[in-house]
C-alpha cells in the first residue's frame, strides 16, 4: 500500500505515527521542532488521511505499510515516535525490524489489550454525519454534537472532513475502523523483546498507561524509560508541546 506521507528536514530519520482518527498533521507540533535537526517522515496510516482504505487493519499491516514506505525511500535506519494507536504501530515496527529501529518513543499507550469500548460515542457521531448530505462543516459539527460533548474532540475529528464533488466526506474509513475496533484495542506481544532504546511518555491525567501495565512494558521493552508529563491528558504532545519536544530531543541525543 502506498501511504501518503510528508518528508521535512535533513539528517537522521524520525518517523511520526498518529493515532486513531488522526492524520500526519496531528503530530505537526513535534515535526516543526524536530525537522530542524532531523529528516521527519509524517505518515497517514491506511484508512486515515490521504492514504488508501482497506478492510485489512492489523498492527502488522500498519507497520508493514511503513516499512514499505521507508524501503521505497531507501531509508534503512530510523527513529520512530507514535502516539496512542500509532504507538502500538511503532511498537510493532520494533518487533518486525528491530535492527532498523534506533530509538522508540511511545506516547501514552501501553502494549496491552484495552477492555471496553472507549470510542462508541465517536463512531455514533461519525455515522450520524454519514447519514446526511453535508454541505457545510457547521452541519457536520451539529450532528457530531448529538453524541460528542467535548468541542475539542469535535474539532479534532472535523480536521478529517474533506470537501468533495458530492459534499463533505470523512477521509478515514469509518466502517473499516468500526469493523476492526477489537484489533485496534487489542495487542499480541512480540515473540522476542525489543532491546533497543525505548521511552514511554505518559500524560499525568490520562488512564492509557496505568501502574498495572508496568510488567507488560518491561517484559517487552526491558530497556524502557518512562517520563510522566505533569498536568496533561492523552494529548500531551499538543497540550505541552515544548516540554514533550524537549524530553524527546534529550532522549534522542543525550549529549546535546
TrEMBL record:
<dbReference type="InterPro" id="IPR000073">
    <property type="entry name" value="AB_hydrolase_1"/>
</dbReference>
<dbReference type="InterPro" id="IPR029058">
    <property type="entry name" value="AB_hydrolase_fold"/>
</dbReference>
<dbReference type="InterPro" id="IPR000639">
    <property type="entry name" value="Epox_hydrolase-like"/>
</dbReference>
<protein>
    <submittedName>
        <fullName>Alpha/beta hydrolase</fullName>
    </submittedName>
</protein>
<feature type="domain" description="AB hydrolase-1">
    <location>
        <begin position="13"/>
        <end position="240"/>
    </location>
</feature>
<keyword id="KW-0378">Hydrolase</keyword>
<dbReference type="GO" id="GO:0016787">
    <property type="term" value="F:hydrolase activity"/>
</dbReference>
<dbReference type="Pfam" id="PF00561">
    <property type="entry name" value="Abhydrolase_1"/>
</dbReference>
